[in-house]
Amino acid sequence: MTLLDKDGVHLTADDAIATVTLTNPDKRNAQSPATWRALAEAGQALPGSVRVVVLRAEGKSFSAGLDRQAFTPEGFDGEPSFPELARRSDLELDAVIAGYQEAFTWWRRHDLISVAAVQGHAIGAGFQLALACDLRVCADDAQFAMRETSLGLVPDLTGTHPLVSLVGYARALEICLTGRFVHAEEAERTGLANLVVPAAELDAAVRDLTAALLAADRDAVIETKALLRGAGERTYEEQRAAERAAQARRLRDLAGLGE
Protein backbone atom coordinates (compact mmCIF):
# COMPACT_ATOMS: atom_id res chain seq x y z
CA MET A 1 0.00 0.00 0.00
CA THR A 2 1.47 3.35 -1.04
CA LEU A 3 1.29 5.95 1.72
CA LEU A 4 3.53 8.67 0.29
CA ASP A 5 5.03 9.52 -3.10
CA LYS A 6 6.55 12.98 -3.37
CA ASP A 7 9.83 14.82 -3.86
CA GLY A 8 11.84 11.71 -4.60
CA VAL A 9 10.53 9.71 -1.63
CA HIS A 10 8.17 6.73 -1.93
CA LEU A 11 6.69 5.02 1.14
CA THR A 12 4.83 1.71 1.11
CA ALA A 13 3.64 -0.44 3.99
CA ASP A 14 2.59 -4.08 4.17
CA ASP A 15 1.53 -4.98 7.70
CA ALA A 16 4.73 -5.11 9.78
CA ILE A 17 7.13 -3.94 7.04
CA ALA A 18 7.43 -0.46 5.57
CA THR A 19 9.74 0.47 2.72
CA VAL A 20 11.06 3.96 2.08
CA THR A 21 12.58 4.32 -1.37
CA LEU A 22 14.62 7.20 -2.75
CA THR A 23 13.32 7.60 -6.30
CA ASN A 24 15.54 10.10 -8.09
CA PRO A 25 18.17 7.87 -9.72
CA ASP A 26 18.88 10.33 -12.54
CA LYS A 27 20.43 12.64 -9.94
CA ARG A 28 21.91 9.72 -7.97
CA ASN A 29 19.23 10.38 -5.33
CA ALA A 30 20.75 13.72 -4.37
CA GLN A 31 18.89 15.33 -1.49
CA SER A 32 17.27 18.72 -0.96
CA PRO A 33 15.15 20.33 1.78
CA ALA A 34 12.09 19.00 -0.06
CA THR A 35 13.54 15.49 0.19
CA TRP A 36 14.05 15.96 3.92
CA ARG A 37 10.50 17.17 4.45
CA ALA A 38 9.19 14.13 2.57
CA LEU A 39 11.38 11.79 4.64
CA ALA A 40 10.12 13.37 7.85
CA GLU A 41 6.54 13.03 6.59
CA ALA A 42 7.20 9.36 5.84
CA GLY A 43 8.11 8.79 9.46
CA GLN A 44 4.89 10.43 10.60
CA ALA A 45 2.80 8.37 8.15
CA LEU A 46 3.89 4.94 9.38
CA PRO A 47 1.00 2.72 10.54
CA GLY A 48 1.20 1.39 14.09
CA SER A 49 1.57 -2.16 12.81
CA VAL A 50 5.01 -1.45 11.30
CA ARG A 51 7.94 -3.08 13.08
CA VAL A 52 10.69 -2.91 10.45
CA VAL A 53 11.42 -0.05 8.05
CA VAL A 54 13.64 -0.72 5.05
CA LEU A 55 15.36 2.23 3.42
CA ARG A 56 16.45 1.63 -0.15
CA ALA A 57 17.26 3.62 -3.27
CA GLU A 58 16.66 3.25 -6.98
CA GLY A 59 19.56 3.26 -9.41
CA LYS A 60 23.27 2.70 -9.03
CA SER A 61 23.80 5.02 -6.06
CA PHE A 62 22.16 5.10 -2.65
CA SER A 63 22.53 8.88 -2.43
CA ALA A 64 25.15 11.30 -3.71
CA GLY A 65 24.39 13.66 -0.83
CA LEU A 66 23.17 17.22 -0.93
CA ASP A 67 22.07 18.39 -4.38
CA ARG A 68 24.76 20.81 -5.59
CA GLN A 69 22.05 23.28 -6.54
CA ALA A 70 22.10 24.19 -2.84
CA PHE A 71 25.47 25.85 -3.38
CA THR A 72 24.29 28.17 -6.15
CA PRO A 73 23.24 31.74 -5.30
CA GLU A 74 19.68 30.88 -6.30
CA GLY A 75 19.47 27.66 -4.28
CA PHE A 76 16.20 25.76 -4.63
CA ASP A 77 12.90 27.35 -5.64
CA GLY A 78 10.97 28.36 -2.56
CA GLU A 79 13.88 27.56 -0.23
CA PRO A 80 16.31 29.91 1.48
CA SER A 81 19.73 29.86 -0.19
CA PHE A 82 22.88 29.34 1.86
CA PRO A 83 23.70 33.09 1.77
CA GLU A 84 20.17 33.83 2.98
CA LEU A 85 20.50 31.32 5.81
CA ALA A 86 23.82 32.84 6.84
CA ARG A 87 22.14 36.20 7.37
CA ARG A 88 19.52 34.81 9.75
CA SER A 89 19.80 34.98 13.52
CA ASP A 90 21.32 32.10 15.45
CA LEU A 91 17.88 31.12 16.71
CA GLU A 92 16.33 31.14 13.25
CA LEU A 93 19.23 29.22 11.71
CA ASP A 94 19.11 26.65 14.48
CA ALA A 95 15.39 26.11 13.84
CA VAL A 96 15.95 25.61 10.10
CA ILE A 97 18.69 23.02 10.61
CA ALA A 98 16.65 21.28 13.31
CA GLY A 99 13.84 20.99 10.77
CA TYR A 100 16.21 19.39 8.27
CA GLN A 101 17.36 16.93 10.94
CA GLU A 102 13.81 15.65 11.45
CA ALA A 103 14.27 13.56 8.31
CA PHE A 104 17.08 11.67 10.04
CA THR A 105 15.85 11.21 13.61
CA TRP A 106 12.79 8.97 13.53
CA TRP A 107 14.61 5.91 12.15
CA ARG A 108 15.88 5.04 15.63
CA ARG A 109 12.54 5.04 17.42
CA HIS A 110 12.45 2.28 20.04
CA ASP A 111 9.36 0.68 18.46
CA LEU A 112 11.04 0.29 15.04
CA ILE A 113 14.06 -1.44 13.58
CA SER A 114 15.35 0.38 10.51
CA VAL A 115 17.53 -1.26 7.88
CA ALA A 116 19.38 0.67 5.16
CA ALA A 117 20.08 -1.22 1.93
CA VAL A 118 23.08 0.59 0.48
CA GLN A 119 24.52 0.26 -3.01
CA GLY A 120 27.01 2.47 -4.79
CA HIS A 121 27.78 5.89 -3.39
CA ALA A 122 26.50 7.13 -0.03
CA ILE A 123 28.08 10.55 0.30
CA GLY A 124 27.55 13.35 2.81
CA ALA A 125 23.83 13.52 3.52
CA GLY A 126 23.55 10.06 1.94
CA PHE A 127 26.10 8.67 4.39
CA GLN A 128 24.27 10.33 7.26
CA LEU A 129 20.93 8.91 6.12
CA ALA A 130 22.41 5.41 6.13
CA LEU A 131 23.86 6.12 9.59
CA ALA A 132 20.41 7.21 10.80
CA CYS A 133 19.23 3.61 10.47
CA ASP A 134 19.81 0.92 13.09
CA LEU A 135 21.38 -1.54 10.65
CA ARG A 136 23.11 -1.34 7.27
CA VAL A 137 23.23 -4.10 4.65
CA CYS A 138 25.59 -3.13 1.85
CA ALA A 139 26.31 -4.25 -1.67
CA ASP A 140 29.95 -4.96 -2.34
CA ASP A 141 30.16 -1.81 -4.46
CA ALA A 142 29.05 0.48 -1.59
CA GLN A 143 31.24 3.50 -0.89
CA PHE A 144 30.70 5.89 2.03
CA ALA A 145 32.21 9.37 2.33
CA MET A 146 31.76 12.52 4.42
CA ARG A 147 32.58 15.45 2.15
CA GLU A 148 31.20 18.32 4.23
CA THR A 149 34.55 19.66 5.44
CA SER A 150 35.83 19.97 1.86
CA LEU A 151 32.95 22.40 1.31
CA GLY A 152 33.73 24.35 4.48
CA LEU A 153 30.79 22.77 6.31
CA VAL A 154 30.32 20.18 9.06
CA PRO A 155 28.16 17.02 9.08
CA ASP A 156 24.97 18.35 10.68
CA LEU A 157 22.30 15.78 9.79
CA THR A 158 22.71 13.62 12.93
CA GLY A 159 25.47 11.42 11.48
CA THR A 160 28.32 12.27 13.84
CA HIS A 161 26.93 10.48 16.91
CA PRO A 162 26.31 7.09 15.26
CA LEU A 163 29.57 7.33 13.31
CA VAL A 164 31.63 7.77 16.49
CA SER A 165 29.60 5.05 18.23
CA LEU A 166 30.28 2.61 15.39
CA VAL A 167 33.94 3.23 14.52
CA GLY A 168 35.35 5.25 17.44
CA TYR A 169 36.46 8.86 17.69
CA ALA A 170 39.83 8.64 15.93
CA ARG A 171 38.57 6.80 12.85
CA ALA A 172 35.44 8.98 12.67
CA LEU A 173 37.62 12.10 12.80
CA GLU A 174 39.86 10.79 10.03
CA ILE A 175 36.89 9.80 7.83
CA CYS A 176 35.24 13.21 8.23
CA LEU A 177 38.33 15.36 7.81
CA THR A 178 39.83 13.55 4.82
CA GLY A 179 36.53 12.95 3.03
CA ARG A 180 37.95 9.68 1.71
CA PHE A 181 35.84 6.77 0.56
CA VAL A 182 35.15 3.93 2.97
CA HIS A 183 34.62 0.90 0.75
CA ALA A 184 32.33 -2.00 1.60
CA GLU A 185 35.05 -4.29 2.95
CA GLU A 186 36.28 -1.66 5.40
CA ALA A 187 32.71 -0.74 6.32
CA GLU A 188 32.02 -4.33 7.34
CA ARG A 189 35.35 -4.71 9.16
CA THR A 190 34.90 -1.54 11.19
CA GLY A 191 31.22 -2.04 12.03
CA LEU A 192 29.69 0.50 9.67
CA ALA A 193 28.06 -2.34 7.75
CA ASN A 194 26.36 -5.28 9.43
CA LEU A 195 26.60 -7.33 6.26
CA VAL A 196 28.16 -7.01 2.80
CA VAL A 197 26.83 -9.08 -0.10
CA PRO A 198 27.17 -9.09 -3.90
CA ALA A 199 25.05 -6.33 -5.41
CA ALA A 200 22.71 -8.84 -7.05
CA GLU A 201 21.94 -10.34 -3.63
CA LEU A 202 21.24 -7.10 -1.75
CA ASP A 203 17.44 -7.28 -1.83
CA ALA A 204 17.42 -10.96 -0.84
CA ALA A 205 19.79 -10.30 2.06
CA VAL A 206 17.56 -7.51 3.34
CA ARG A 207 14.50 -9.76 3.07
CA ASP A 208 16.26 -12.48 5.08
CA LEU A 209 17.33 -10.02 7.78
CA THR A 210 13.84 -8.52 7.95
CA ALA A 211 12.31 -11.97 8.41
CA ALA A 212 14.74 -12.74 11.22
CA LEU A 213 13.95 -9.45 12.97
CA LEU A 214 10.20 -10.08 12.73
CA ALA A 215 10.59 -13.56 14.22
CA ALA A 216 11.41 -12.04 17.62
CA ASP A 217 8.74 -10.92 20.09
CA ARG A 218 7.90 -7.26 19.41
CA ASP A 219 7.87 -6.11 23.04
CA ALA A 220 11.14 -7.92 23.75
CA VAL A 221 12.68 -6.21 20.71
CA ILE A 222 11.55 -2.79 21.94
CA GLU A 223 12.94 -3.37 25.44
CA THR A 224 16.22 -4.78 24.11
CA LYS A 225 16.72 -1.90 21.70
CA ALA A 226 16.16 0.61 24.50
CA LEU A 227 18.65 -1.25 26.71
CA LEU A 228 21.34 -1.28 24.04
CA ARG A 229 20.78 2.31 22.92
CA GLY A 230 21.20 3.57 26.47
CA ALA A 231 24.09 1.33 27.44
CA GLY A 232 26.80 3.76 26.37
CA GLU A 233 25.44 6.49 28.62
CA ARG A 234 25.01 4.31 31.72
CA THR A 235 27.55 2.99 34.17
CA TYR A 236 27.92 -0.76 34.51
CA GLU A 237 25.77 -0.75 37.65
CA GLU A 238 23.14 1.47 36.04
CA GLN A 239 22.98 -0.91 33.07
CA ARG A 240 22.53 -3.88 35.43
CA ALA A 241 19.63 -2.06 37.06
CA ALA A 242 18.11 -1.20 33.68
CA GLU A 243 18.32 -4.87 32.66
CA ARG A 244 16.57 -5.95 35.85
CA ALA A 245 13.79 -3.41 35.40
CA ALA A 246 13.26 -4.36 31.75
CA GLN A 247 13.18 -8.06 32.57
CA ALA A 248 10.69 -7.49 35.38
CA ARG A 249 8.39 -5.73 32.91
CA ARG A 250 8.70 -8.57 30.43
CA LEU A 251 8.01 -11.26 33.03
CA ARG A 252 4.92 -9.42 34.27
CA ASP A 253 3.65 -8.93 30.74
CA LEU A 254 4.19 -12.60 29.88
CA ALA A 255 2.34 -13.57 33.04
CA GLY A 256 -0.51 -11.23 32.19
CA LEU A 257 0.29 -8.98 35.16
CA GLY A 258 1.44 -5.91 33.26
CA GLU A 259 -0.16 -2.53 33.79
Overview of this protein structure:
The chain has 259 residues and is an alpha/beta fold. It is built from 10 helices and 10 strands. It has a 7-stranded mixed beta sheet with strand order 1-2-3-4-5-7-10, sandwiched between helices. The protein has a 3-stranded mixed beta sheet with strand order 6-8-9. A hairpin with a 2-residue loop joins strand 2 (9-14) and strand 3. Helix 1 (33-44) packs across helix 3 (90-105). The model has no long low-confidence stretch (mean pLDDT 96).
Question: What is the gist of this entry?
Answer:
43% of the residues lie in helices and 17% in strands. The protein has 259 residues and is of the alpha/beta class.
